Amino acid sequence: MAHDIANILQQDHERLDRMLEDAAQAVQDARWEEATKTLESFRRGIVEGHMAVEESLLFPAFEAWEGGEDHALTALLRKGHRDLQVFFSEMADAITAHDAEEFGDLLSTVQTILKQHDAKEESEVYPHLAEAVADGGELAAKRLLAGQEQGS
Ligand SMILES: [Fe+2]
Ligand SMILES: [Fe+2]
């Protein structure tokens, strides 16, 4: 197998963190147009790429592999995705309003949530994916890598 789904996911977390930092830097420099574009690339990358692959391919496979009815961990992670998306749209509003202070408050909240979320995935879900996903994560890896090319 030429890829390692756990590594690819972890690198995608790091790539998305950097994109968010780029957006924050643009806000700090009052480069509002660039901030809008960079935040939108980040949002698309994380929501339509990363989270969509997790929720449509990886979490269902993980849940089936875990067995049982109660999937508290993935339920929590899915809820985290919903909560984060609310903050992303509030960050976009702050940029539209040229409100760097509001953006900064939202940013630190988002970074705190993301750090915990990503750490939980990386320690409790990703290590099991190669075994849990029927194709070892090949399709998920392909979709993530394709999304990265589009977003870059
Ligand atoms: Fe996630
Ligand atoms: Fe993730």
TrEMBL record:
Domain of life assignment: Bacteria
Gene3D superfamilies: nmb1532 protein domain like (1.20.120.520)
Keyword check for Coiled coil: yes
Keyword Coiled coil in annotation: yes
InterPro entries: Hemerythrin-like (IPR012312)
Record keywords: Coiled coil
Domain Hemerythrin-like: 5-129
Coiled coil spans: 6-33
Name used for this protein in its record: Hemerythrin-like domain-containing protein
Organism: Acidithiobacillus caldus (strain SM-1)
Taxon lineage: Bacteria, Pseudomonadati, Pseudomonadota, Acidithiobacillia, Acidithiobacillales
